[in-house]
Design brief:
globular; alpha/beta; two-stranded parallel ribbon
Length: 152
């Protein structure tokens, strides 16, 4: 997907977690539900990106940190896309039922035509991945396979 997007000169934005007790408003509630989880804090460090090598950003691609599950909240993502006249957004990443879905929803809610590329996403298990796409796909956002990008 990312190779095809680069070939077509799409605007590419990478999103990294910036989960800290100080910046993430949801943290206290999450700790209440998951008292045994100790690996939740993941501060955004631009010099230490947690990105697979095949998806490493180029110098011209924006990398933003998000303090919650949705990249469209508490970030400059929506303003950034609007300022560049973007109206259609493709979403891919981890975890389908949480960050991908919440990001796709906030983009839909902000008026973007939003599409989740289902085979470029993953979840903790296949059932969760399939369930969220079944529930919200074609309701709030389109769902396509990466092979559809060959048509773009």
């Amino acid at each position: 997907m990312i190779s095809r997007a680069r070939e077509r000169n799409f605007l590419i934005v990478h999103v990294q977690t910036d989960y800290t007790k100080e910046r993430s408003l949801w943290f206290r509630q999450f700790e209440r539900f998951h008292p045994d989880r100790t690996d939740v804090e993941m501060p955004f460090e631009p010099t230490k990106l947690r990105i697979e090598s095949f998806a490493s950003p180029t110098k011209s691609e924006l990398v933003i940190g998000k303090t919650g599950f949705a990249a469209g909240l508490h970030t400059n993502l929506i303003d950034y896309l609007n300022s560049r006249g973007i109206t259609n957004v493709l979403v891919a990443g981890l975890i389908t039922s949480v960050c991908v879905h919440h990001t796709a929803f906030t983009l839909f809610d902000a008026g973007f035509q939003t599409c989740v590329i289902q085979d470029c996403c993953a979840d903790r298990n296949r059932r969760r991945h399939d369930s969220v796409l079944f529930l919200y796909g074609e309701y709030m956002y389109d769902v396509l396979d990466s092979s559809s990008l060959l048509l773009l």
